[in-house]
Amino acid sequence: MPAPNGTAQATVPAAVPVRWSVRFFFVWLILLAVWEVIIRSGLHTGLFLPAPSAIIASLTSLIRDGTLVRHLAFTISRIIMGLVGGAIAGLVLGLAMGMSKRLRRVIDPIVAALHPIPRLAFFPLLIVVFGVGEMSKLAAVSLGAFFPMLLNTVAGVRGMNPVHLELGRSYGATRRQMFLHVLLPGSLPLMLTGLRLSSNVAFHATIGVEMVGSRTGIGSLLWLSWQTFSIDQLYAALTVIATLGIGLASLIRWITVRGAPWLAERPATA
Amino acid sequence: MESPLAQSNESARSRHFTCDGICHTFAGDRGEVEALVGVTLDVYAHEFVCVVGPSGCGKSTLLRIIAGLETPTVGRVQFHGPAAARGVRGGLVVQEHGTFPWLTAVDNVAFGLALEGMSKVERRARAMAFLERVGLADFARHYPHELSVGMRQRLGIGRAMVVDAPLLLMDEPFAALDAQTRRKMQDELLGIWAADRRTVLFVTHDIEEAVRLGDRVIVMSERPGRVLADIAVPLARPRDFRRDHFQVRGIIEDVWRLLDSPSGANS
Hints:
Largest sheet of chain B: 6 strands, mixed
Strand content of chain B: 15-25%
CATH architecture of chain A: Orthogonal Bundle
Oligomer: heterodimer
Radius of gyration of chain A: 22 Å
Number of strands of chain B: 9
Shape of chain B: globular
């Protein structure tokens, strides 16, 4: 975890590994073309590895009959709502813990015990508590998004450069001003790192809970595909999930650049 | 630039602040450490005072106490005249990280004004005037990390000055710079300072720097720090490092004699 260190401050939250580049499309175009040729030439039956054309056909029919849009709407809203809920809760508690030693001493042991549990393992309990409806799914996604945001916010506040705090105090800043003008911007880099990690977990958790206990969402479409042995549709669903993941990562990257422009303009070799 | 701080010569001898018998003890893991013992000091308005002493002599602690960042174990700092009424302790310039990395140059300088609730347009305009004074007008939209170390230090000075703090507290601001940049910055600081002659308390471990810059050099002993001597520097302003060279050398030797004398070392 990068530690904020004054003017040579925290490193850029690690870049999204996938970029929409010419090379990206080029590599995939070649790969899909070769794949297509292999299936068409009869070298492979295409049973578990359907031809790209078959996947595209499946995707097209899913789009035509509105199935995809419906599932996608469910998935996206679950990710966003879960992420917003979990991240805000993590942010608020993280700020409070960062500033209060007493609170840290109480909550640290609780976090230490709960954090290592895989997010999906909470799902059965959440169903017991919230029922099989939408609430338990959102709770699972939020819970996943909560921890990375919490831990990084605490680290961000705790890792504040003490010199910047003293500069603020030397101006006679009030507690409120110290919070708004120094503490918040000073710990923002790690909060954004927290947001990035939280968005990943929220995405994974959403697909997970949709596979396990839902008739809606891309995760359920994926699960249904295997149950009905629609291999084409299975690949189509995977394609949609990959696209969704890249889209989400791009969104978070955009937020990071907008939120902390002083980090974005750093040379990559910082 | 017209400044409310510039005053006529006769009132220049009014006291700005007084350190009154300051003792400070740090409670460490291995018992208490005495940092300062009975430091009494008068600093006059518009004076450039340098505090020099060996590493760990408590000179930075003294500055932090004057800045209000630390409460002395014994004694107190008393501000006189308009400084007391303002309540603002002073602009602080430190060795490193003296700028906010999340603000552009102009917003760094405007930081203190933002806290005072000044409108964005107004404080940017004021800050631009100060950026010009520290020679950074062309870099207003740059972030600190995009500036050189020397420029960043100038920005730190501009940031500390714009609050209209009549007092500038500088804690080894040039210690991290190479010799060449350092000399240039010393010259520039005197130029910036000359515009309105705010009171400056400049802490350094470099005797030459102290003599070159200051009207007075306060020499401190090894830990626990106390005032060994208060040496007036009778060099004309504006200072000319080349012209002053021999006089500076003489005063430096005087300071060395003080530090080497048996009373200089607390054994």
